[in-house]
Amino acid sequence: ATRHALLGEFILAGEKTEAAWYLAQRMGDQSMIGMYYVFNFQLALIRGTAPDLPTEVDEIFSAAPDTPLVGINIPLIHALCGQCDEARATFEQFRMLPAQLPIGPRWAPIVSQIAMVATLLRDSECPELCYRTLLPIAQYYDGDGSGAVFSHGANARQLGDLALTAGEPDLALGHFADAIAMNARIGAAPSVALSRLGWAQSMMAGASPNVARASDQVQRAAAEFRRLDMPGPLVRALELQNRLDVSRGVLTAREREVMHLVSAGRSNREVAATLFVSERTVESHVRNILAKLGLRNRTELAAIAGKKPGA
Question: Can you say whether residue 28 is alpha, beta or left, with left for phi > 0 and alpha for psi between -120 and 50 degrees?
Answer without folding.
Answer: left
